[in-house]
Amino acid sequence: MPKHRAPRPPAPAVSATAWTVGAALVGVVLCLTMVLRTSEAAFSGTVSNSSNSWETGSIALAENSSGSALYSSASDGRLTGGQAVTRCITVRYDGTIASSATIKLYGSATGALAPYLDLVVDRGADSFTTPAPGCATFSARAGGVFRGTLEEFGATATDYASGVGAWSTASNGATVAFRFTITVKSVAEAQNKSAAATFTWEARG
User: Fold this and answer.
1) Contact 91, 145 (CB under 8 A)
2) Consecutive H or E run containing 38
3) d(CA 93, CA 91)
4) What residues does each domain of the chain span?
5) What is the pTM of this model?
6) How many CB atoms lie within 10 A of CB 193?
7) N or C: which end of the chain has fewer CB within 10 A?
8) Which stretches are transmembrane (predicted)?
9) pLDDT tens readout for residues 101-140
10) Distance, CA of 177 to CA of 202 (rounded, Å)
11) Burial, 174: exposed, middle or buried (Cβ in 10 Å; 0-12, 13-18, 19+)?
12) DSSP-based three-state secondary structure for 102
């Protein structure tokens, strides 16, 4: 005969109170976890370095001719072969950037006479007193700035990068004198011709 097993006692009933407590505990744990994570994300710290400011200096040049041409047919008349005309000009640095500012000379030349005009440019001493109109008091530095024709000057010293006679300023108000000598070549091809030129000093720093 098959054996009869005694029936298992019924599982104790879980009261509604127990489920409520359990659910409440779980809810508290989840709530605490969420609160902790939210609190961690809200923590922050900063440090600032304020009141920074920048200001640029200026670079400016002036020359003592007041914008008048060094040479002009009106004042020099018509030139002849072998004739030389010398002029001096003083360039002054008026900027506030001194130690790193470098000044160079360049220019342009046009006209059929340009190949027949020999140009010599010399630089005088720094902080030089404005020379007399005929450059009688000018004292040139060794080496010179440019030797060639006016046409060659206009073709080779065309901008700051190719400029000549570079000099660095020591302070605001520093001056340098330059002497320009133009000589007409004694050749028949130089007759009845004209030329024009612009001489430019540029400072960069």
Assistant:
1) no
2) helix 16-42
3) 7
4) 91-202
5) 0.70
6) 14
7) N
8) 16-36
9) 888 999 999 999 999 999 999 998 655 556 665 687 888 8
10) 15
11) buried
12) strand
